[in-house]
Amino acid sequence: MPKYSEEELLALARQAYRQGAASFSVTAEECALLVIDMQNEFVKPYWAPYWIPEATRQIPKMRRLIEWCRLNRIPVIYTVFSNTHRFMDRPYTGSYMPNRFPDIEDHNPAWFQEVKVHDGLTPLAEEIVIPKPSYGAFYDTPLDTILRNMNKRAVIICGTLTNFCCGTTARQAYERGYKVIFGSDVCATDDMDLQEAELMVLRKGFAKVLTSEDIMDRLAEGI
Length: 223
Fold this sequence. Notes:
Layout: H1 6-19, E1 31-36, H2 40-43, H3 53-57, H4 59-71, E2 76-81, E3 128-132, H5 143-149, E4 154-160, H6 162-175, E5 179-188, H7 195-205, E6 208-210, H8 212-221
Parallel strand pairs: 1-2, 1-4, 2-3, 4-5, 5-6
Helix pairs in contact: 1-7, 6-7
């Protein structure tokens, strides 16, 4: 007889997707907060076809998390998707993907050129803003070096899009040995029907998935 039945294995998988919790511990001193792509192209209402309305609605919660991190000496690092190296540092097939909306004819030449973090989340003068050429914040950027020079071994992720730039960053951080904390209510996507599906995958295999309130409460005590 097999040690585990098919039904038992499926139940284990479902449990991990829905209620699983990474067992690592983490302290505030280990952490940096990554604010992923909260720029006008994705957050400023009606300005670009890439606008993520839910990301705009989440700004107050995100601002509270950012301010809490600043008060608790957790570095805040921003990323922006922008024109780096004349767009020659992109994955080759990126321009062929449907999320570039090739059928839209009135592309604004200002999009992704002089990129600005949305006014509601403006970085402080001393905070780092990293331009990035693709979804993940570690791809072809100095983020890993910056975090290691800061002696940070854990990252908190907020921003947009949950199942593209934020989720990819979580996977890349996990693969580089970082403890990953993913903010379930401070990450948004363009189809919120897909939000929980991405959180389930991250919860099972890549990150500790928590609300922003839980992140602050638990870090105050040591998760």
